[in-house]
Description:
The chain is an all-alpha fold. The protein has helices at residues 2-22, 28-51, 53-68, 74-99, 104-126, 129-135, 144-173, and strands at residues 138-139, 142-143.
Amino acid sequence: xxxxxxxxxxxxxxSYVLRLHYSAxxxxxxxxxxxxxxxxxxxxxxxNREWGLLNILTxxxxxxxxxxxxxxxxxxxxxxxxxxxxxxxxxxxLLTAWYFRPILWRHWLPLVVATGxxxxxxxxxxxxxAVDAIILDRVLGVPWDWIIELSGIVLLIGxxxxxxxxxxxxxxxxx
Length: 175
């Protein structure tokens, strides 16, 4: 289900890009880059969920740590990675916000949600056992992992839809 929602969101973003191409909004190129980037993100999230790409990376990293002999002391390295991912996420958010600053006042929420979703997926990939214990727990038979990622994707699609509708209303009211 996560794959279908992610790819549906990617198609929605791609249709926004096409719709922007045929209209003449202000800052059209930035809006197309913004929605094209969101489409790519959702496409990649769907591919990851379908093929388990990050799970393969996690398993490979775990085997590498075991072979190198530091698997039993991995918690410090994982903690450092998570802190690094948090700093990197903040840096990416700030740089992306700076790049998209002309359109950010209408499109800040999708940017924040996308950054949060990427950060969650990256932290899940590092796979601290405490994080695993939380995300593998189930609510009504559904793993928290699915709930968090699926709700993040749905929230992103909703935020993108609201931002696009606001942009279209602004273009229509200010020709």
